[in-house]
Amino acid sequence: MTESMTEAMIVARGLRKSFRQSNGATFEAVKGIDVEVRRGEAFGFLGPNGAGKSSTMRMVAAVSPISGGELRILGMDPAVDGPAIRGRLGVCPQEDNLDQELNVFDNLYIYGRYFGLPKQVVRDRVGELLEFAKLTEKAKSRVDELSGGMKRRLTIARSLINRPDLLLLDEPTTGLDPQARHLLWDQLFRLKQAGVTLVITTHYMDEAEQLCDRLVVMDKGVIVAEGAPRELINEHSTREVAELRFGVGEHAALAEKLADLGERVEVLPDRLLVYAADGEEVVARTHERGLEPIASLVRRSTLEDVFLRLTGRTLVD
Fold first, then answer.
1. DSSP E strands: which ranges in 81-205?
2. What's the rounded Cα separation, in Å, for the pair 112 and 128?
3. Pairing of strands 222-227, 214-219
4. What class does CATH assign to 3-227?
5. CA-CA distance, 233 to 22, in Å (whole number)?
6. What is the DSSP code string of 193-244?
7. For residues 286 and 279, is the Cβ–Cβ distance under 8 A?
8. Which residues lie below 8 Å from residue 175, measured CB to CB, with a gap of 6+?
9. Pairwise CA distance, residues 48 & 141, whole Å
């Protein structure tokens, strides 16, 4: 075992995951990836549905055996030390799996008792986590009375009951409104400041940019890019993007007429993306050529532009 595999929180070398399909064929969901997550950082897996993110997370959570390669979690081998690893992890699944028959307090308390913690210790932690999740006033409310955002905060609070060294969050804000998402982002940032290592899967590019120190972009079971969000944007995209919307069916033909205005032009079904250092200049020169878009927008490049550059697809395809 190498030194990095004992010091890092997560180290994967050539990690693979295969599934046997109903027709007898083998489907490889994760195709030999290398990942290293350092202590105290927020690390992201970014990609569309089916990229292999959730399969990777289940292996990291020590609930799904690896099919090939090497994996060490907290310096341990999940094939041998699964229970010890799971005792030091917090896991927030993609779907809330709270007990609908229990109130908010009991959802936390009973889960805490699973870890063999003394009753008073669990009670104290429940109080702290209710305050952290801004659910103190809802302690006696049934789960089915909570909003989607409240349920998500409760699920994350529950995953912290054992004070984990490593917190795994699978699509933490899917289905939440913008206000609830920002509240959750703030709570995750506070956890990181407190020293908790976060591993996040998401297909929201703004979420990855806000939360992650480093990330990998996955597509079809492989890693297509790795680095800090801003580094990836600087490396694979331009400073700005001009989005130009024309009539239905016109975009492919117009792309050739605008190709010289930027470093590259992407044709999407409903708009053209012109990548350039100065998006406003692109819009002005488009009008100078007698082309009048129905709508135009200038924005900074995002991780979705990185993904489009690398794979030819948007993150939500």
1. 89-92, 166-170, 197-202
2. 13
3. antiparallel
4. alpha beta
5. 40
6. HTT-EEEEEES-HHHHHHH-SEEEEEETTEEEEEE-HHHHHHHHS-SEEEEE
7. no
8. 148
9. 35
> What is the phi/psi pair of residue 302, to 5°?
-130, 175
Q: Kindly state the helix (H) or strand (E) to which residue 83 belongs, with its residue range.
A: helix 78-86
Residue type, 213: D
Instruction: Kindly give the confidence (pLDDT) of every residue in the chain, 317 residues in length, as a single tens digit, with 9 standing for 90 and above.
Output: 454 454 799 999 999 999 998 888 899 999 999 999 999 999 999 888 889 999 999 999 999 999 999 999 999 999 999 999 999 999 998 888 899 989 999 999 999 999 988 999 999 999 999 999 999 999 999 999 999 999 999 999 999 999 999 999 998 888 888 888 888 899 899 899 999 999 999 888 888 988 999 999 999 999 999 999 999 999 999 999 999 999 999 999 999 999 999 999 999 999 999 999 999 999 999 999 999 999 999 999 998 899 889 887 765 55
Beta bridge partners of 31: 16
Q: Domain ranges in the chain?
A: 3-227, 238-300
How far apart are the two ends of the chain, measured CA to CA in Å? 39
**Domain 238-300 is of which CATH architecture?**
2-Layer Sandwich (3.30)
Q: Which two tokens stand for residue 267?
A: 């044709």
Q: Is the pTM of the predicted complex or chain greater than 0.85?
A: yes
